[in-house]
Amino acid sequence: MESGVSRWRQISETLIKEIERGVFEADRRLPNSNDLAARFGVNRHTVLRALAQLQTEGIVRMERGRGTYAVVNPLQMRLGPRRWFEQNLIHSNRVPTRKVLSVARLPAPEAAAEALDIAPGSETAFVVLRGEADGVPINIVSNYFPLERFPNIDDVFRAFGPEPTSQLSFGKIFRDYGVADFRRKALRIRSRPPRPEEARQLEIAPVDHVLETDVTLVDSSDTPLNYANTAYASSRVELVVDL
């Protein structure tokens, strides 16, 4: 390897070239850190630093307990007024599923109350979902539904059970409550490190980042229906805002 360049950077540059040449195809697992350390004649910590840098650059993703995978074409999630989770995945030839992680009744925190145009502390159904593409976790969504508008909607989500399902559709749930049409009204995006539970559920390393969105859904009369905070695994998706 070239002198004057740190060993971890040389390793990362070599792996980038191999991924670009197709030595490691999209979603193919790379050799483990011990094997890479032996290949490059360095210690394991040097390899892990190189892989962490590649993950920060979106070139690989590190999944806890599963290994490191090449990322060639991250999944595009288009966030238009009426572009939804299922449409994005089906368009990318992926199978969409959701898993209900938790359901509870909680007082609305300030941000949710403001978005839903209800008094702070009003009772809401708090529903946490994990979105998956071909069984791979891609996001964690924390939803707030005003119970005055959607009585017993928490029971609707509990009925899906704890296993991933392709049957969970916001469109169908809203229609059952008499909402024929809905859209995104507000969207905010930021990047941050994952919280410990998010890293566990998304099966990403703590050094990875998530893309966080705050979204408000409204009906055709502009009445708020849902406030959602979503954490996307940034090494698996790119967000495209359709205006």
TrEMBL record:
Keywords: DNA-binding, Transcription, Transcription regulation
Record-annotated HTH gntR-type domain positions: 5-73
Keyword Transcription: yes
Domain of life (superkingdom): Bacteria
InterPro entries according to UniProt: Bact_HTH_transcr_reg, Chorismate_lyase_/UTRA_dom_sf, CP_lyase_PhnF, Tscrpt_reg_HTH_GntR, UTRA, WH-like_DNA-bd_sf, WH_DNA-bd_sf
PANTHER family: MANNOSYL-D-GLYCERATE TRANSPORT/METABOLISM SYSTEM REPRESSOR MNGR-RELATED (PTHR44846), MANNOSYL-D-GLYCERATE TRANSPORT_METABOLISM SYSTEM REPRESSOR MNGR-RELATED (PTHR44846:SF1)
Name assigned to this protein: GntR family phosphonate transport system transcriptional regulator
